[in-house]
Amino acid sequence: MIPKLNIVPFVSVDHMMSLVLAKGVERFTVELAGYIEEDFRRWDMFDKTPRVASHSAEGVIELMPTSDGTHYGFKYVNGHPKNTREGRQTVTAFGVLSDVGNGYPVLLSEMTILTALRTAAMSALAARYLAPKGSRAMAIIGNGAQCEFQALAFKALLGIESVRLFDIDPEATKKAMTNLAGSGLTLEPCTSAEAAVQGVDIITTVTADKQNATILTDNMIGSGVHINAVGGDCPGKTELHRDILLRAGIFVEFEPQTRIEGEIQQLPAEHSVQELWKVIRGEAPGRADSHQITLFDSVGFAVEDFSALRYVRDSLTDTAFSTDLDLLADPDEPRDLFGMLLRHQKVAAAAP
């Protein structure tokens, strides 16, 4: 049977949750990281452009497009820190994957949950190349919507055993402790960022305030630590003191975008950074030695979302985790779109 090209698989929030739970969060994250790694190894095949952003005083709305020449994908995503005060998510998203050959979409998916999973998978994948060997302890500063995904990704991909948690809102830390109970991780709530980073190998910062902030100061960072800077991601929003950046080996996804949105917006344009795909492909070194401070200045890039959509589409085979969506007009005669409208009118008029 020839598939109807106007029918597009749609993965709803319920479907995404069912798919994730059917696989298990850790397995899902590991497999997703594999897709991202595979696409980073073929980095030169992708269209690459900084995301198209519309900034306001309240937040940002962005489109993140890319193509590998066979498929085209984009994500619509917002970032509005004030939303939590109104009972809304800070970040929401959906995405589309299309066939370049005919321009028809082949997948429409929620990406709020998927973005959290791909961000965590990207963080842990980067750490696998940059963090100290044998890392077992990490700190997560900012215990909001991303926290648990980050913790489980680092457990699954790096073997992290203990997590120290801090948030300026104790209820956020309490929430994370509850959600991660039974995960196999040793959890320790902390009363300050300074306490949280004591004795850890990896520090993840994932805060959401739309302002320049100093979540980590230079004196808090000892030699050999890997920093995973996830929060920020817009002009005027940073989390790390500039002096930390001057001491660290800095790794980014796509330098032109990170210069605008990442921690390195604090540095002059000529300050040296390394794109992570080169490390993954073995074309550039990662961590230099056990004493180096490494920083993954993570802002998220369209290729990662493309990988996530590709992974979800492949995962839908022989499952019930999608709905057929009548999304595209498909007249019997491609040139007779108006006639299709008239025929529908006749059908509607004849209906009882």
TrEMBL record:
This is Ornithine cyclodeaminase. Pfam families: OCD_Mu_crystall (PF02423). Belongs to the ornithine cyclodeaminase/mu-crystallin family. It comes from Georhizobium profundi. Keywords: NAD.
